[in-house]
């Protein structure tokens, strides 16, 4: 599903990650590693928002660099600490992403309802707490018909009820639409994972 070849990401002269070849089959993956090892770097590169040397593709067919629009429509991402324009409302962000991701009608209603965001979704983002912003960013990452969803530290700032909703979304998307997930977290995940990807020693290994 996700293929990485001759990948290298450096900040200045410091190489953070170097991956010769990694072909990841469909599934739900827990991305683990100590602070500063490169988990966010890996997810941001795979999401197409961070420049890197090398090649990342979906199944060797849809290349991030050669088919950037198609790739980004199929690979969704939520940042660890989302930052959005303060003056927009949650609803406006949802409309924007739904249009870019060609989301089916009413998909955003399901996400807003199930994550209990109705009370504030029409308010400007300047009024949101960090948990409210986190829930919105996760909802945005579930819009459209992606093949892959990358969630960077999805558990942080989420209350216990919201966490259960998130786990339900992940299980539904994986079971019903065969969506693959990459979930970086320092805490164990309360959902069944296919494999663990460990980020250490400037590279990534699959543990299975
Ligand atoms: N914009 C940047 N400029 C310079 N160095 C950076 C930049 N972003 C990240 N780094 C460095 O790259 C390394 C990997 O950072 P990254 O954020 O990917 O780690 P992480 O595994 O997600 O960490 P954490 O678990 O603490 O969130 C760190 O050493 C960090 O200092």
Automatic annotation (TrEMBL):
It comes from Chryseolinea serpens. The keyword Acetylation does not apply. It comes from the Bacteria. Pfam families: ABC_tran (PF00005). PANTHER family: ABC TRANSPORTER ATP-BINDING PROTEIN ALBC-RELATED (PTHR42939). GO terms for molecular function: ATP binding; ATP hydrolysis activity. Keywords: ATP-binding, Nucleotide-binding, Transport. This is ABC-2 type transport system ATP-binding protein. Residues 2-206 form the ABC transporter domain. The keyword Transcription regulation does not apply.
